């Protein structure tokens, strides 16, 4: 993991000149990933990998400590009838729930990620965003998921966005920072690419597509564009950045195609939960059903999989 | 606090398991006869040849070898059908026959795709997603023209030619048969078609569908054989039109052979198309375009983007990304749904490709091939890049017809145009830039029949295809593709 | 005393200049009454070579000229021809036409130029297409000129055959090398003079005189000639053209028409020397169905 000092020693490019992206070309490439047929052993391995990359998420105004505790329990006991399953990578909650979550996951190895910076809109002064972040870190968050200021981005104030990310990174200290671009509000892939570049140079350890509150969220086109940005950043600086598509990845097939995309775009180095995550709430059960279908040979019913 | 459990995964190798397309429920005979006058007839010589699967060298079927006598029989059947039935069939009825063929093909799409891949070595993903649907759509498109021809040629009366002799290549066997037969039928002609000797099966399957469609006997005749069979079609006195897709060398022989006749000819021949990457291009999509341009169908594509031109300022980045990208290509069993590059069509073609690779190395070019594994039996070739080449290199000048790309750099747009046009061919060209005005400039100045801007190797029944200069004459596809099969009064 | 008539020296027209033939040879065709028409350049293959070079050089500029401008230049040629009608009529009469025939031929030639002048900025609209491909691409086909065209002019007429062949060729942005009628060469040369005082750039049209049978081969086998036209009924010439086409796949067009007929002019004479160029470009599709905006 690179430190903010490493990052600040980089020569900052002119973000107005971020590489352009041809959307139709991206769609064609994505369609090719989707023609990959993942069967047998590759499927079994892929599904377990996907399960272990999930950030189990609850981000609702009506969240309560009890709801968060239930989710944390699920995170550690995905499907007890099937021994040997991995846990999910993390739970993702609001700052006010970090303390509860931290205690609930205990020593399971499941990390606690906290959204921050006035999630999901990000419409707060920087001082509030820093306090928000520091609070979550102090509560024990292992990871911070911040949002960028999309309004400022769309007004062309790229330096503002950059400075804000750098300031939050400072506030994080050693806590890993995921930067949410909210690509559904950025609309074009050119914007997605530019925002990715800003985030990575600004100090992101991970870049993340969406809050889950805006549609469309983590389309494969958007994720692919961000993966290309991550690869270019690695080629230029040698620094590895993680990727987290969030929102809309609700079934195993889509998850597997995302993994295919990661493998073919970035390589197998990224196929771990240290560098790739799925932000999702309903994906885990679908993956579990697929795993059980493979184990038992019969199609599954949702009645047999716990919903927390 | 207790010691934390490990929940962080390690990066591991993740390979795709085999995902073979099943070849069950495929109707393939052990032996195919000639389809003449609506009947399956034995070749007069009694001779047959084998068609093999280039992916494993196994024999697929025995195929009738037609000689001059058989061709004469086929042309006579076509002439008879033309005179007695087809020229008298109402255009709207003609259209309905062609629509029916399109539908019957769609119903058997999977069967066509599987047989195409078995016979030609092309990957099942391409025959399933590209060749077969495009072939069906070609019939569907031209069907509708049959009763609308007067709108295609303003101020003229349109008449059919009579009997068209058609010779198709082995790179897109079914698709090329569709490109030939559909417009010929729509314009009211009868057809004698010879598929390539290494890939006759899908054309013969098409004959079965044509038989089933109830198309009057003799309107379409499918005859199989080698070059001498094709020559017999070209030289037959009662053929009004020759449509050929294949090498420039054979195209020239045909042009000479029919010089003293009134036969109309369309020739779709070779190419050495330029794919030009400018510095402001969407680089990652351009890299995809390069890959699609040269490695689509193992590079057995007349319009393959086989000459890459990259602006010097981005050359290093493009080449690095290209190398990375081709290292993720899977070369292997064409029937596996995950294979990107299938088998080379024949031993002869593999020998030609390998000869060019050797020439490239002998001429001092730098070669790059990814370190991918190849199947043990069958004909395969790794995707190959050649750097440090010049316009004067043999591998830059001659059509290789395989997965071999030459990479040259340029400094200015003018230089790129000059080098791109500096070839006897003129089939296609690719342009990659984010600037619209530059696209139009290059599109104007590149001497090629098809210009792909920020894309490559796209085909559609509505889009005319064909080249300048030694890439042949005439167009196939679209409104413009009709003129090859009509006379205007 | 009767004034001594000044005789006209007939030269060839290459690259906008009037040189004599490289070969230094000449011939003196006669009319039916046995009168000598003039001393005409008996060109050789070197003149062919120079003409093709001139035509190729002129191609880029001419083909890229605005269609409207090409139309104006063709119209200007017609204007000039109208002004010199008398001279052409005189030459036609000398070459064996009656006065009535000659007048008809010149008038028709002028009108034919105007006909094709009008097509210059319209034919791509009539022949071109936007093709509704199934993928997310904008796809259009347009006609672009084939390149350098070799023309074996009509042997039976001096002017109308020539005009009927060259007008559609140059209207479509091609450049050409013309072998004039061997026995009736006068109007071709005089027409070159008309061209030279029009705005047609040098090299777009090059006119040679002499033996068709001698010059045909170097022209039809020339690797930098993209198309050939033959006007006439000699099958052996058609065969020779098609055979030589095998060298570089040049396009061969053969017309056996009475150029004095009104229907011998049409759009398809123009499209015969055009290549269809089809361009694809992706269409970025953002948002929902466009009709919902």
List the helices and strands and how they pair.
The complex is a heterotrimer of chains A (308), B (489) and C (293).
Chain A: H1 4-8, H2 23-35, H3 40-51, E1 54-57, H4 65-76, E2 90-93, H5 98-105, E3 111-115, H6 126-139, E4 143-147, H7 150-154, H8 158-172, E5 176-180, H9 183-186, H10 189-202, E6 206-208, H11 220-237, E7 242-244, H12 252-265, E8 278-280, H13 283-296
Parallel strand pairs in A: 1-2, 1-8, 2-3, 3-4, 4-5, 5-6, 6-7
Helix pairs in contact in A: 2-11, 3-12, 3-13, 4-5, 6-8, 8-10, 10-11, 11-12
Chain B: E1 31-32, E2 34-36, E3 39-41, E4 48-53, E5 58-64, H1 68-84, H2 91-107, H3 109-120, H4 124-143, H5 149-152, E6 158-160, E7 163-167, H6 173-186, E8 190-194, H7 201-213, E9 220-222, H8 227-235, E10 241-245, H9 248-257, E11 264-268, E12 274-277, H10 283-295, E13 307-311, H11 312-326, H12 347-362, E14 366-368, E15 384-387, H13 394-397, E16 404-410, H14 413-421, E17 428-432, H15 436-445, E18 450-453, E19 472-473, E20 486-488
Parallel strand pairs in B: 1-5, 7-8, 7-10, 8-9, 10-11, 12-13, 12-17, 13-16, 15-16, 17-18
Antiparallel strand pairs in B: 2-3, 4-5, 6-20, 11-19, 14-15
Helix pairs in contact in B: 1-8, 2-4, 2-7, 3-4, 4-6, 10-11
Chain C: E1 26-27, E2 40-41, H1 45-64, H2 67-83, H3 85-94, H4 99-119, H5 123-127, E3 129-130, E4 137-145, E5 148-152, H6 160-171, E6 175-179, H7 186-196, E7 205-208, H8 212-220, E8 227-231, H9 235-248, E9 251-255, H10 267-271, E10 274-282
List key phrases describing it.
heterotrimer; A: 308 residues; alpha/beta; TIM Barrel; eight-stranded parallel β-sheet; 13 helices; 8 strands; 48% helix; C: 293 residues; Aldehyde Dehydrogenase, Chain A, domain 1; five-stranded parallel β-sheet; three-stranded antiparallel β-sheet; 10 helices; 10 strands; 42% helix; globular
Note down, in words, how this protein is organized.
The complex is a heterotrimer of chains A (308), B (489) and C (293). Chain A is an alpha/beta fold and 308 residues long. Chain A has helices at residues 4-8, 23-35, 40-51, 65-76, 98-105, 126-139, 150-154, 158-172, 183-186, 189-202, 220-237, 252-265, 283-296, and strands at residues 54-57, 90-93, 111-115, 143-147, 176-180, 206-208, 242-244, 278-280. Chain A has one domain: Aldolase class I (TIM Barrel). The two termini of chain A are 33 Å apart. In chain A, 55% of the residues are buried. The model of chain A has no long low-confidence stretch (mean pLDDT 95). Chain B has 489 residues and is an alpha/beta fold. Chain B folds into 2 domains: 31-268 and 469-488, Aldehyde Dehydrogenase, Chain A, domain 1, CATH 3.40.605.10; 274-453, Aldehyde Dehydrogenase, Chain A, domain 2 (3-Layer(aba) Sandwich). Chain B has 15 helices and 20 strands. In chain B, the strands form 5 sheets. Chain B has a 7-stranded mixed β-sheet, with helices on both faces. Chain B has a 6-stranded mixed β-sheet with strand order 9-8-7-10-11-19, with helices on both faces. In chain B, strands 1-5-4 form a 3-stranded mixed β-sheet, covered by helices on one side. In chain B, strand 10 (241-245), helix 9 and strand 11 form a beta-alpha-beta unit. The mean pLDDT of chain B is 96. Chain C is α/β, with parallel strands linked by helices. Chain C is 42% helix and 16% strand. In chain C, helix 2 runs antiparallel to helix 4 and helix 3 crosses helix 4. At the B-C interface, helix 9, helix 15, strand 18 and strand 19 of B face strand 4, helix 9 and strand 10 of C.
